[in-house]
Design brief:
It is built from 2 helices and 11 strands. With 155 residues, the chain is mainly beta. It has a domain of 100 residues: Deoxyuridine triphosphatase (dUTPase) (Deoxyuridine 5'-Triphosphate Nucleotidohydrolase, Chain A), CATH 2.70.40.
Length: 155
């Protein structure tokens, strides 16, 4: 086991969460097998946020300290997406300490959506960062697929 593996398996590797305002809720897993933590809207005195024709930043009332070597991603919730409410994918880097904000927007068929304090609005998924070196090359190796993308292997 390398020193890096030992570091990531140590008890010191935790996701630290700071509550920034009263009423903010810590992220929670919805079930024992869930890979994502639910993120909750913290609207304090805002009441509700109405999402209509443009994306809206929805505050969570928390800040994170993601351990070095890890990545925190904000992802949509499938239940909201099925109702036409989308979330922009986002990355929270290990050196960011500000409030976690979730960018929410509507699919064209959804005219409006109300976000209330305490609503589950997104998922937070934590993963390890692959620390691979970037090397500029003149050519890439050839494959059968080559440069065919965007549906070239079937929809």
């Amino acid at each position: 086991m390398s020193a890096r593996d030992t570091e990531h398996n140590s008890e010191a590797t935790v996701l630290k969460v700071k509550v920034l305002r009263p009423g903010a809720k810590l992220p929670e897993r919805g079930s024992a097998g869930a890979t994502g933590y639910d993120l909750y809207a913290c609207l304090d005195d805002l009441g509700v946020i109405i999402i209509e024709d443009k994306p809206e930043l929805v505050p969570t009332g928390i800040a994170l300290e993601v351990p070095p070597g890890f990545d925190a991603q904000i992802r949509p919730r499938s239940g909201l997406f099925a109702r036409g409410v989308a979330v922009a994918l986002g990355t929270i880097d290990s050196d960011y300490r500000g409030e976690v904000l979730v960018t929410m927007y509507l699919l064209p068929s959804t005219p409006r959506y109300e976000v209330k304090h305490g609503d589950r609005i997104a998922q937070l998924v934590i993963s390890r960062v692959a620390d691979v070196p970037l090397v500029e090359v003149e050519e890439l190796s050839e494959t059968e697929r080559g440069n065919r993308g965007h549906g070239s292997t079937g929809m």
